[in-house]
Design goal:
single chain, 3-stranded antiparallel sheet, RNA-binding, tRNA-binding domain-containing protein
Length: 381
């Protein structure tokens, strides 16, 4: 059944007629996959891709050795720390991703929450593949709990108010039954007004709660526009010894001028002709009378004795936007300083134990791989 699923998924992905592939007894996975690859549009290139062939061997070995699957999944999780896809430098799934996903799907979908927590990069990749590749009904959806988008529970205001209102009505009814004099009638009217005011207050609070929840949900890294920049020129700030000024190309008609607190850690010469990662939708403003139009992201150890701009992988171009798997929202045109969005997001930016820059463990990805730092377990600001 597992081999049939791999064959069906690969045929669907490569638009190959599954009826042209015989899956009878004696047909091994490698020969079946090779037949499908040969029949695809880029057949020769696929068949001659040694890395793709290795992934077929991986899938075959995974299916044939159930006792070793736990370790294999752990190794795959480690490999995916710095990748969005199994094979390739960018974000586009390959036949290798389809084959590996199809092979491991039945083994990962039934894992407990504790076991899933040990394989965050594997599940991030699996979620990305199942949402990017059209498998149809071949595979049951792997459901992931994405805690960063979970809105906090609101207080049960309605129940409290309804309880008070009910109690007030009962009191009013009691007062009414105790007599029919004018004072009794006034008491009932007063109590009814209190009920109406109480209910109206509860109704007003509902939209306010929803609005607050929505604001919390929107505090995602996708609000930030993070781009690759190329420093054309750097110089010392004219009136602040701790600051440097950089002229940064981000693929726009005109370079941006950015002020950074890097004078203690880098010389202007070290920054010139270097690629950096910067947030470009912060509100422009002056730092010691010099205009700044961005924020260069740097990794820092706990006591700030070591600070460095993030490294950009070879091949990534100026202006390219950093992506985060699973976070596909649209960046704000300009971040609103009053909402303190940046202050709430940056605590979740850090490098992992291998120095890979992440947001809540999800790598900063470019078309050529992840951004990194020589400082592991560092904060990023």
């Amino acid at each position: 059944m597992a081999i049939q699923n791999i064959v069906s998924a690969l045929c669907k992905y490569l638009a190959v007629d599954p009826n042209s592939v015989s899956t009878g007894s004696g047909s091994d996975l490698k020969s079946l996959c090779t037949t499908i690859l040969k029949s695809s549009q880029n057949g020769d290139a696929h068949v001659n891709n040694s890395e793709l062939m290795k992934r077929i061997d991986f899938a075959e070995s995974f299916l044939e050795n159930p006792d070793a699957r736990s370790k294999v999944l752990t190794d795959l999780n480690e490999e995916l720390i710095t990748k969005s896809v199994v094979l390739g430098n960018g974000l586009t799934p390959s036949p290798a991703d389809v084959i590996v996903f199809s092979a491991v799907h039945s083994s990962v979908i039934g894992l407990s929450s504790d076991d899933r927590a040990k394989l965050p990069h594997l599940f991030r990749w699996a979620d990305y593949i199942q949402n990017k590749v059209k498998f149809g009904e071949l595979f049951e959806k792997i459901l992931l709990e994405k805690v960063e988008f979970a809105a906090p529970l609101s207080k049960p205001i309605k129940k409290v108010e309804d309880s008070n209102a009910k109690k007030t009505v009962q009191e009013a009814n009691g007062a009414s039954s105790s007599g029919t004099d004018s004072k009794g009638k006034k008491s009932v009217d007063t109590q009814k007004k209190k009920v109406e005011v109480s209910q109206a207050t509860a109704e007003k609070k509902k939209p306010l709660e929803k609005e607050a929840d929505k604001k919390d949900e929107e505090l995602s890294v996708s609000l930030l526009k993070i781009q690759i920049g190329y420093i054309r020129k750097a110089w010392k700030h004219p009136s602040a010894d701790s600051l440097l000024v950089e002229e940064i190309d981000v693929g726009e008609a005109k370079c941006r001028q950015v002020v950074s607190g890097l004078a203690k850690y880098c010389t202007p010469e070290e920054l010139t002709n270097r690629r950096v990662v910067l947030i470009t939708n912060v509100k422009p403003g002056k730092l010691r009378d010099v205009m700044s139009q961005g924020l260069v992201l740097c990794a820092s150890n706990s006591d700030h004795t070591s600070v460095e701009p993030l490294f950009v992988p070879e091949g990534a171009k100026a202006g390219e936007c950093i992506t985060f798997s699973g976070h596909d929202g649209k960046p704000e045109e300009v971040l609103n300083p009053k909402k303190k969005q940046l202050d709430k997001i940056t605590p979740h930016l850090f490098t992992d134990d291998k120095g890979v820059a992440t947001f809540k463990g999800v790598p900063f990805m470019t078309s050529s791989g992840p951004c990194t730092s020589s400082i592991p377990n560092a904060s990023i600001k």
